[in-house]
Write a structure and sequence with these properties.
The complex is a heterodimer of chains A (about 500) and B (about 280). With about 500 residues, chain A is an all-alpha fold. Chain A has 4 domains: about 10-60, no CATH class; about 65-225, no CATH class; about 230-290 and about 365-485, MetI-like fold; about 295-345, no CATH class. Chain A is built from 23 helices and 3 strands. Chain A has helices spanning about 10-15, 20-40, 60-65, 65-85, 90-110, 120-140, 145-165, 170-190, 205-220, 225-260, 265-275, 280-290, 295-305, 305-320, 325-330, 335-345, 355-360, 370-380, 385-390, 395-425, 430-435, 450-455, 460-485; strands spanning about 5, 45, 50-55. Chain A has a two-stranded antiparallel sheet with strand order 2-3. In chain A, a hairpin with a 5-residue loop joins β2 (about 45) and β3. Residues about 190-205 of chain A have low confidence and may be disordered. Chain B has about 280 residues and is mostly helical. Chain B contains 12 helices and 1 strand, in the order αααβααααααααα. In chain B, α6 (about 140-160) runs antiparallel to α9 (about 190-210). Classes of the chains: A mainly alpha (about 500), B mainly alpha (about 280). At the A-B interface, β1, α2, α10, α11 and α12 of A face α1, α3, β1, α4 and α5 of B.
Chain lengths: ~500, ~280
Amino acid sequence: MAKDISLKQVVTYWPLYFFVVPSALLVATFSYFPAGSAIYHSAFRWNGNTIKIFVGAANFQKALGTPLYWILTLLVTMTMIYQSQNKTTFAKVMKMVCGLGMPLLNLIVLFRIRPPEGLQPAHMIVTGLVWLGIWFFLRWRMDNDSEIRGVVTFFCFILGGSATLGAMGLEGNFAWSLTVLIAGLYLWFFVKPDAGVFKLDGMRIGQSLIGVGIFVWSLAQNAGGEVALWSGFSVIAVLVVANLVKMIPSITTAVVVNRLKSEAANYWYRVLFVVPMIIPGMVYLLLWKFFFESGGLFNLVLRKTGIMHLIYVFDFWTENGVFISVKEAAGMSLGDVLDAANMAAPAWLGSPELVLPAFIIWGFPWVGVVGVLIYLAGLQSIDQSVYEAADLDGVGPFGKFLNIELPLILTQVRINLVLMIIGTLQMYGMILILFGDAGGPNGKMMVPGLLMFRSAFVEGYAGYACSIGLILFFLILVLTEINNRFVRVEK
Amino acid sequence: MSMRRKEILAEVWKHLFILFILSMAFLPLYVMIVISGKDGAQFVASPFKLTLPFHWENYAHAWSLMRAYVFNTVFICVTSVILTFVLSLNAAFFFARYRMPGHKFLWYFFLVLMLMPGVANLVPLFMLLKSLSLLNTFYALMVVYVTGGQVVQIFILRNFIEDIPQDLFDAAEVDGASPIKQVYHIVLPMSGSVLSTLGILQFISLWNDYILPLIVMRDDSMLTLAVGLVRMDGEYVKDWGALMSGFTIASIPMVLIFLFTMRLFVKGLAAGAVKG
């Protein structure tokens, strides 16, 4: 065990501190000082050099929009979390505040926003019906569970209402205010204090957190902040989901390698999997950029396998006009389309519609070599006899995976999941390399990190960049906290 | 008999699946090496097939462009990795072996950093380096890399040192070994596989780092390989053969590292060095 040294003994043992002092000094200077400096400078209009004017919370307002919206959302969030922990007295008070505050706030906002222009009843009806459908589907088979039903109703109501009004042609902000107004009234009049909308316990915290996420999300889009920031977050959300799916091939590969009967083959595959790792990430990135070019390998493969035809036919029928503009497609026969597919060579990273799909396909077949090796290390401890026992019990291959293999690698899967989400949120180096600081075709890939970089080093708004960085920082901190609470890692 | 046949068929499917995945994993490597030996005409005629003659002069051309970058990057990465080892081994030893007054505070001082994403720090960090007049020097990169790299290593090495049998340290103390000697004669020789895994992972991430060198370095001769490669890639008229040769050259240090440490690396991964 470690040696205890009391305060008196420090007189003789003080040189031991020199083991840790250099590290601590470095960390204090190059990690803590910049972090503090970021917080300090986020309150300034600062160009990083001579101009430095105190502007208070204006930087955050520019990024996030109306502060009152955020305060109320924070209150709602706290209500949900406290109710889920059965701290009901606090929650009751909060609910009263929210129930009153939302309508009041929105009455104020309503008068400030311009009234709607052209109305589109058809869109409204369709959107409304879709949301009704979602509501019915979510309520399906949960009749006895009134708590969940309340939550489902509430969120379908808010989001569906807002979407419906938006589709009608109302301005997003206006639609949102109107729905929140009605929702606040609903909360105030129809929800009994003890059987509350948000009354959730134990396992349902996760669901309520998803609810909060959706709530904050739709609020963020309507509070009138920086448009590029929120479109960036939606790109990030798509990429997180894509990366989630991309975790599957690594796990599958590790499981398949581990299930091989022959020990020698197992060993050789393991060695072979290390070999592609010699390509540095930077080179790998540039190689994939080369694959996605107009005359690149990706288009070649799509043409040779005939997948390009499928894409073109799909594009033709849906009139999406991703490859061909809608006008052109209307005048084309299917034969023309197929001919076009034979010659087609779109530049995937150069068109606003194709750049996100290209990012999703990026890195096919998505087998991370380090990932496979780590999973394999976890799987190694399974004895062959376990498989034989499972065979006798008639467990299928998928059953084996769920019951034997997954529990063994769950720790690694969870860690990879968390690292992936945090990494994707911060990701902008790749986009900077591919497209420079403009964020790709039409600024489509302007992710929050890149927005920060651009504000600081191109536009000279260093203070604003600090505040964007802090927003990202806060988001990641919340995610890490959620992870620490709910995704426990057993040693 | 049919049972046996079914089993063999299942094995064959597994092998086919793995071979497919492997071939896809090797594809970038293949493309890189094949194109690196092509001149312009060969590239236009058949970009993805091996063509003869193989133009080795592409490599000479790429090397002449990239020599400075390669030396810069190797120097920065190796120095940073070694300095990180020195700092993190000592600090981890301190946390694993002694309970000094204030040791809890120091521990949390590092623990908080694990939760702190670096993204918010970038702009003030740049300003700090500027006011320390470290811009356009290697020290700027090294100092930031060492600071960032040591935190994770302290955590992993602390767990590792705590698992070393106490008797070893006691015996050393009886023989009059100072704490410093204990680090370099007991901990260091025992932690080969963990250190090599941590070192390789750090080396790879530093080798690929792009943003910090991009904003810190001004002179072309001071750039690192990552920035240099992107510059080469960004030129309008591309000499694909030379570019791919450059990519291959950039991969060679990795080959060397893996040749010498692959055994330790795979062992370290298997032992759970990066489990967290």
